[in-house]
Amino acid sequence: MLESKGGILFIAGIGFFAFAFLSNVAVPMIMFKELPEQTVEEVVNDRIMYQFSELSQRYPEPFRLAFGEPSEEACADALRLGRQVYIGEACWHCHSQFVRPVSNESRRYGPVSETWEYQNELQRPVMFGTRRVGPDLSREGGRHGNDWHAVHFYRPKTIVPESPMPEYPWLFDGAPDKPNKRGLALITYVQWLGSWLDSYPYYEELESIQSEGY
Ligand code: HEC
Question: What is the chain's mean pLDDT, rounded?
C-alpha cells in the first residue's frame, strides 16, 4: 500500500480523521465530564432579563398576550421558543455560532468560543451553522436594541439596503412594531447569545440605567 501515492494519502487521511476525533471529541469529553449541563432556567441571567423586560415595555400589548409578565420562567419559555424559530426559519443556513481561533475572528466578533459555553440545554444540538453568508451570531446579544432587531427581521433591507437576508413578516401581526409571540421569542433568543460573557456590550451602561430605576 505504501508504494503508491494513493496508498500514502489514504493512510494519512485515516490518521488525520483519528487525530481530529481524538482532539475534538475524546479530549473535550474527558476535560468536561464533570461540568453539569445547565437547563434553560439556569441560563437566564440579568442581561437577558434586562432585554426581556425592555421588550415588555416597548411592545406591551403583544408581549402581554404572548408571555404575560416578564418573569424568569416566561423568559425561559421565550428562549426555548426562540431557538425553535431560529431552527425552523433556517437562520443557521447563513449564520454560524462559533468564533474560531483563526483569522483574527475575535477582532470582529468578540472572544473566541470555548467549550463550556455550549454546555447547556439551549445548545442541543449546537447551532454551529453550515456556512457564513451573514455574520457569526454567538456574541450578537446586546449589539443592537430590540427595536433594531424587529425592524431588521421584518425587512432587513430597511437597515442594510444591500442585505441578502430574507424578510420574516410572519413574525409580526402586520407591522414591524407588532412582533407576535414567535417574533418576540426570536428577538429574546438573539439577545441571549453571548449574554454569559462579561463582554456583553453596553451592559455597564444598562446596569447604571437600571439602578436609576428605569
Ligand atoms: C440568506 C442568508 C441569511 C439568512 C437565511 C438569515 N440571515 Fe441574518 N444576515 C444575513 C446577512 C448577509 C446579514 C448582514 C446584512 C444585514 O445586516 O442584513 C445578516 C444579518 C443578521 C443580523 C445582524 C447582525 C449584526 O450584528 O449586524 C442578525 C441578528 C441576523 N442576521 C439574524 C438572523 C436570523 C435570526 C435569521 C433567521 C430568522 C437570519 N438572520 C436569517 C444573512 C442571512
Answer: 93
Contact 193, 138 (CB under 8 A): yes
Q: Tell me the CA–centroid distance for residue 107 and ligand 1, in Å.
A: 19
Distance CA 153, CA 204 (A): 27
- Gap from CA of 173 to ligand 1 centroid (Å): 21
The closest of 51, 75, 101, 85 to 180, measured between CA atoms, is 85
CA distances from 214 to 47, 53, 144 (A): 14, 10, 19
From 133, 136, 152, select the one nearest 144 (Cα to Cα).
152
Per-residue pLDDT reduced to its tens digit, 101-156: 999 999 999 999 998 999 999 999 999 999 999 999 999 999 999 999 999 999 99
Amino acid at 117: E
Pocket lining: 151 vs ligand 1, CB cutoff 6 Å = no
Residue 57 predicted with pLDDT over 80? yes
Rounded-to-integer distance, Cα 68 and Cα 211, Å: 24
